[in-house]
Design goal:
It is built from 18 helices and 19 strands. It is an alpha/beta fold. It has a 7-stranded mixed sheet, sandwiched between helices. The radius of gyration is 24 Å and the shape is globular.
């Protein structure tokens, strides 16, 4: 066969495809321009929007109401039970008292489609004439991630993770899972699908600690992650796909979003808990009243809108300090309790029971270390080969707590002075007895957690010297942090806008969005966009899930990794 003819035919096909795509994009832009013109003429009168919870999902909902629905800012009301916004996107503390990050929210440039689009319209607080998206991506491209000590063994040696460690049996099970219809996987766990040896592979230790899966987590969710994050499969050993914010997520994401909303007149109420919601009688779902813990009742009319956070993974978290362990939680999950009540009132509201009735399966424990000077960070850098901000997770694979740590680029807080450094860590098995501190992780003080950590690096003999620089170590116990990964039936998570709803939606990590994966910023933002576009009849595209699992180049790399 004439190679020139073949090449010419292929080139012609590609050219035709590109031309068709260009025509489709032009048509789409023209249609969406008409939609924008129609929306610009809308007058909602005195219609109000009540957003329950102050996490990223409801804040994104407010932004979409302003940006894409032409809704008046002064008629948008965010009701938050805590004295601060942010939900699970937190970051707090001082150089003198110590800083706290309850968790680390990793971003991903390729798969956070709606997230980047939204924050592309939010002005940066730090960089003039830049959006938050531009600020984050510029920072990340100048501070790339390439972990050189992804796993560390019990002897304190860096493990060679160029191989995933799969057997042929593991490969067969993994391949079969990715092609299995997810609707057949209700209530199944990961350990029901794979044999015990799978959970000793390098792959499992890296994937588990990157995304916080447990053996007993939902097989359904694991499958979605494997398909959605298949780009990361071939680089899980270096975590090159991790995108980091300049500062902690509260200061990098929540504060600029809050300032934008405030500039548009959005109303914020703090220290107010919505304890119940009334709905109209009948088959439809129409919210009619909000009940607050103060006794106040907010009447909701048919033209008003309610968007509710139906659950939050950091609810009921407790904290300690250098000399005090976190107390056992006594408070029930505020947003989860509201979901319980709502779910009893109307069909299609989901079922919170699989997520919030199993604390022993959904908990884990984090700790944030604040030091004067950089002596400890220098030690970690010399051991790992990674400067702060370049290494992502370092996991002690044989730790009974399955302890990992992250050293972010410094400073990680705006108020962090040049002589103060911080890093963050977590353990997936807080009920297990430590290898060096012989007590459960969740019962340990901050000092004991740090001693366990440095002991895994073999630095016990230098403990007194290391301890001199420690300002504080703040432990945090989170009973429901992994709740969104619990085994469940397909119907346990409600639709963002339940069938029959006229003015009510739910947004969080506990709603159902086809093909997407929970425990991500993208999931919350996508849920917010779905809620606003559906309730306000906005006929514009919601950025779809990018099908990397059907990209030949990506699949070739994944196949090579499978046998690496």
């Amino acid at each position: 066969m004439d190679k020139k003819k073949v090449f010419g035919a292929v080139a012609s096909t590609v050219a035709v495809g590109m031309a068709a795509k260009k025509v489709a994009n032009v048509a789409k832009d023209a249609r969406e321009k008409k939609v924008d013109e129609e929306i610009a003429t809308r007058d909602y009168g005195d219609a109000q929007a009540y957003l329950i919870g102050g996490g990223i999902a409801t804040l994104a909902s407010a932004a979409y109401l302003l940006r894409d629905a032409n809704f008046k800012g002064e008629n948008i009301h965010v009701i938050e039970a805590l004295p601060i916004l942010g939900g699970s996107n937190d970051g707090s503390g001082t150089a003198s008292e110590g800083f706290l990050c309850r968790g680390g929210r990793m971003l991903n440039e390729e798969t956070y489609e709606n997230f980047w689009d939204l924050f592309g319209s939010i002005p940066s607080l730090e960089m003039p004439n830049q959006s938050v998206t531009e600020e984050i991506l510029n920072f990340d491209h100048l501070h790339p991630t390439h972990a050189q000590a992804r796993l560390v063994d019990k002897e304190g040696n860096i493990v060679d993770v160029t191989t995933m460690g799969f057997s042929n049996n593991d490969r067969a099970h993994l391949t079969k899972l990715m092609t299995t219809d997810e609707t057949t996987l209700d209530n199944m766990t990961i350990q029901e699908w794979f044999e015990p040896a799978f959970f000793e592979t390098n792959f499992w230790y890296m994937w588990q600690t990157t995304f916080a899966f447990q053996k007993w987590s939902s097989l359904f969710e694991f499958r979605r992650y494997m398909n959605r994050m298949i780009l990361e499969f071939s680089r899980i050993n270096t975590l090159e796909g991790v995108t980091r914010t300049r500062y902690n997520q509260y200061e990098s994401l929540i504060l600029p979003l809050k300032k934008y909303l405030e500039s548009q007149g959005v109303d914020f109420t703090f220290n107010a808990t919505v304890t119940d919601i009334d709905f109209a009688e009948g088959d439809s779902i129409t919210a009619t009243a909000l009940h607050l813990d103060s006794g106040k009742v907010i009447e909701v009319r048919a033209q008003d809108t309610v968007i509710m956070t139906n659950a939050c993974m950091t609810d009921s978290a407790t904290e300690g300090d250098l000399t005090t362990a976190p107390q056992a939680p006594t408070k029930k999950p505020l947003s989860g309790e509201l979901w319980y009540k709502v779910a009893q009132k109307k069909p299609g509201m989901g079922n919170p029971e699989p997520f919030f009735g199993h604390e022993d399966e959904t908990n884990w424990h984090s700790f944030t270390v604040t030091c004067k000077g950089d002596a400890l960070l220098k030690r970690i850098e010399q051991f790992s080969g990674n400067i702060p901000g370049s290494g992502a997770l370092m996991t002690f694979k044989d730790s009974s707590w399955l302890m990992s740590s992250v050293v972010a680029a410094q400073p990680h807080f705006k108020s962090q002075d040049p002589d103060t450094t911080i890093f963050w860590g977590y353990g997936l098995y807080p009920s297990a007895i430590g290898d060096f501190v012989k007590k459960p992780m969740k019962e340990c003080t901050g000092e004991e957690l740090l001693f366990e950590y440095i002991s895994h690096l073999g630095w016990q003999d230098d403990w007194e010297e290391i301890k001199k620089d420690v300002v504080n170590v703040i432990p945090c116990y989170m009973p429901y942090i992994d709740a969104q990964f619990q085994p469940r039936a397909m119907t346990d998570r409600p639709q963002v806008v339940p069938a029959g709803s006229t003015n009510f939606a739910m947004v969080s990590q506990f709603v159902e969005i086809p093909k997407d994966m929970v425990f991500t910023e993208e999931y919350s933002v996508r849920a917010a966009r779905i809620a606003v576009y559906t309730l306000f009849d906005i006929d514009k595209e919601i950025c779809p899930v990018t099908p990397y699992n059907r990209d030949p180049k990506v699949l070739i790399k994944a196949g090579q990794t499978l046998f690496r």
